[in-house]
Amino acid sequence: MSNQKFYKIVTYGCQMNVHESEKIAGALTELGYISCEDMEQADIIVFNTCCIRENAENHAFGNIGMLKKLKAANRDLIIAVGGCLTQQAGKAENLHEKFPYVDIIFGTHNLHRLKDYILLKQNRKKAVIEIEDDEGYVFEGENPVRTSYPNAWVNITYGCNNFCSYCIVPFVRGRERSRRSENIIAEVKGLLDAGYKEITLLGQNVNSYGNGSDDLTFPQLLERIANLDGKFRLRFMTSHPKDFSENLAKVISENEKICHCVHLPVQSGSDAVLKAMNRKYTAGDYLEKISCLKKYVPDCAVTTDLIVGFPGETEEDFEATLNLVKLVNYSSAFTFVYSKREGTVAAKMPGQIPEEVSKQRIMRIVELVNSLTREHTKDYVGKTVEILCEGYDDKKGMYLGRDCYGRMGYFKSETNMIGEFVNIKVNKANGVSLIGERI
Ligand code: 5AD
Ligand code: SF4
Prior knowledge:
The chain has 439 residues and is an alpha/beta fold. It has 14 helices and 19 strands. Helix 9 (218-226) packs parallel to helix 10 (246-254) and helix 10 (246-254) packs parallel to helix 12 (283-296). The protein binds 5'-deoxyadenosine and iron/sulfur cluster (SF4).
């Protein structure tokens, strides 16, 4: 029998969490564990949780509950739960009470100490519960095991200062802090040297990178990275509209490595709702930003996040959102039903919207967004696009990847094309994706 030990990481939520799971995988690798597919085979299972909406939270709770049997069958199994859910006030205790067989509970601010917690747990019976309130300093020197070649995620900021009234993120990820630009640039250089072809800079609000420090501004940082040698694509997310500047639009237009694709969450098209959400812009301000972006980058694809059913949202407010969606003509959008998060300002607002109403609204907005996406996709037919191949779809028997606007394209190839830039002629638009042939 080999002594090899295996890990399994279960990730919930956003790209930020996906990348954080890569860092967790790095820590587990340093401890000698290797990745496995099945929970049954694992010696350690780590849940990296999300609490942005109630369903993400319920999902994690449900799955942790199902591990009781596994733990009973294998006493040596280590179960660790970390991330946004555990960082919420009182949640770690709650989790420990409900699932006493969970061995390690850690928060977002002490993820880099997971290795110590595992070593501690290996030598004691008692659960290790460590949630730090203080976000502290920006931790460097992680060694992520990257799982998305040829794409690589790079954090530039952590936390958020915006306190949108519906959002739990500032409570569980702390105040905004930026990494030093020299560390970011060194990481990106290393990734490009290792053959990565697409870099996505990550932060809750990348536009305010470096705020209040002597470091570069976000447009300057983008420019420095875009000037690095080699053929690669540069993306970033997420931008807050209030901080989206003309200078940034200019930098996107002047650097061909920066993708013409910007994710600019609007949340609502109603000024009253935007004010209640504490978004700090009106629908008019937002549309001006879009005009400015399109002035410099006319072909820029714009994507967004939308929330329906925010407390007090009237039919007129909702229709204002539908109108704005049509006006901007988004290439795609993430749509969410408002989810009440304890501790946020919105949770105490009057006028919570009945579920039935929210359900109707989400259906209407999804239909609108889908019809816009389909129209955008249709425009591609007959054109040639450059795809960065990122995977192979077994079911379709085709390679797949995205163009610089973020549209997914499929094509056939006899040879492995993952990590290559491939020109395809689009023959067919298939809902949200493109089917083409290599030329
Ligand atoms: N309810 C619904 N959607 C939310 N988001 C953030 N908080 C909530 C909430 N309480 C959405 C926003 C944000 C995206 C990441 O998640 O649209 O941009
Ligand atoms: Fe949440 Fe607003 Fe910060 Fe985004 S900008 S993470 S929605 S508080």
